Amino acid sequence: MDRKTAFIFAGQGSQYVGMGKELYQHNDVSWAVFDLADQELGYSLSGLCFNGPKEELDKTEHTQPAILTVSVAAARALMDQGINPDLTAGFSLGEYSALVLSGVLPFEAAVKLVRNRGRYMQEAVSQGVGGMAAVLGLETSGVEQACLGAESLGVVRIANYNCPGQVVISGENKALEAASARAIELGAKRVIPLEVSGPFHTGLLEPAARKLADELAGIEFSDPRIPVISNVTADYMADKSAVKELLPQQVMRSVLWEMSFRRMLADGVDTFVELGPGSVLKGFARKIDKNVKVLNVEDPTSLEAVVKYFND
């Protein structure tokens, strides 16, 4: 059977203590990825993934390299079985796993880069200045209206277009609270504040974008060997210079996930494999197209099941 396959990678929020442990224990290819991460970072990231404590794993400068490492470990284990993607994409932080996979930057550089990305994002806004909230059950136009009506109180905007009936808004506290209340008035079923340390994917992250751009300038990139779809444009990243331009923008621009996913469907993808902790993107996918085939790999059992699916 002729399939067109996309590998997809989730972002922050999908981490949990114990993630990647079984892959590390039972798969040599995955083990090597964790070992490399520990060497590059100069501390036991693998120990933090496997044993916690949760408070440390949840610090963004640890979360980002941890999720990248588990995701790349899962992807390399699958590719080692001869299963390769036709294209790839990742949600926010997950885009870095997609770029490693497509050969744009080496894992060694990426794992340090995302640790610093976490630090820059944390430093860009003081703790408690703002946050993010998921708006459920309201049309996107209604959410945009709610944000527009609250802008006089501060920065607030749609940060993530996840799937129909679920978008995430982000901004300064007063504006975020007002937009959340207005969204309920306009018919949202629920508004759920997210456990994040700042108003990510807004203009407030501009200091982080600048630091990231400075750091990227010193890293050797290659052109993508596997097509990668950008969060910022919901289109393919043309070459390495486009990647360098888009990655800093990504921390302060909206994540166009639903649009990116629809682009992959339009381009003929019929099988998606979510690699790394959890299955958040699988949930979004079902709401975008209930008939879509989405598999996920995060441990040896799921790896075996996916390999069997492709070989049948």
From TrEMBL:
Gene3D superfamilies: Malonyl-CoA ACP transacylase, ACP-binding, Malonyl-Coenzyme A Acyl Carrier Protein, domain 2. It is an enzyme of class 2 (transferase). The keyword NADP does not apply. The keyword Transferase applies. GO terms for cellular component: cytosol. Its EC number is 2.3.1.39. InterPro entries: Ac_transferase_dom_sf, Acyl_transferase_dom, Acyl_Trfase/lysoPLipase, Mal-CoA-ACP_Trans/PKS_FabD, Malonyl_CoA-ACP_transAc, Malonyl_CoA-ACP_transAc_FabD, Malonyl_transacylase_ACP-bd. It catalyses: holo-[ACP] + malonyl-CoA = malonyl-[ACP] + CoA. Residues 8-309 form the Malonyl-CoA:ACP transacylase (MAT) domain. GO terms for molecular function: [acyl-carrier-protein] S-malonyltransferase activity. One of its GO terms (biological process) is fatty acid biosynthetic process. Keywords: Acyltransferase, Transferase. The active site is at S92, H201. Belongs to the fabD family. This is Malonyl CoA-acyl carrier protein transacylase. It comes from Dehalobacter restrictus. The lineage of its organism: Bacteria, Bacillati, Bacillota, Clostridia, Eubacteriales. The gene is fabD.
